[in-house]
Write a structure and sequence with these properties.
The chain is of the alpha+beta class. Helices cover 30% and strands 36% of the residues. It has 3 helices and 4 strands; from the N terminus they run βαββαβα. It is elongated, with a radius of gyration of 15 Å.
């Protein structure tokens, strides 16, 4: 195992997907978020089957950041129960996995703190 994960989430609009993606990358909680446009989701919600167009977010990050990623998604999301599903990255290109580490490291604050 690499300690890296892919988090899947969905958004109800392109605008919301962009807000989520930029929010995660800007906060250094994700190295990259792919936004896959206009997927079709069929699901049960509040006792009825729904058929909606959504946008899939494929979020690349580190396992230890998942609680913060999940919190950020919940904070920015319009859904009362936003999707947050973790898939482990079992293996991958060393250069790409190292890049995920670099891009999700906290920035040094003045005075040496994080």
């Amino acid at each position: 195992m690499t300690g890296k994960i892919v988090v899947l989430s969905t958004a109800g609009s392109a605008e919301e997907a962009e807000i989520l993606a930029r929010g995660l990358v800007d906060a250094r909680l994700a190295a990259c978020v792919n936004v896959v446009p206009q997927i079709r989701s069929i699901y049960r919600w509040q006792g009825a089957v729904q058929d909606e167009t959504e946008f899939l977010l494929v979020i690349k990050t580190r396992r230890e950041l998942f609680p913060q990623v999940q919190e950020k998604i919940a904070h920015l999301h319009s859904y009362s129960v936003p999707e947050s599903i973790v898939l482990p990255i079992v293996d991958g290109s060393t250069a790409y996995l190292d890049w995920i580490d670099r891009e999700t490291e906290a920035l040094e604050q003045p005075g040496g703190g994080v």
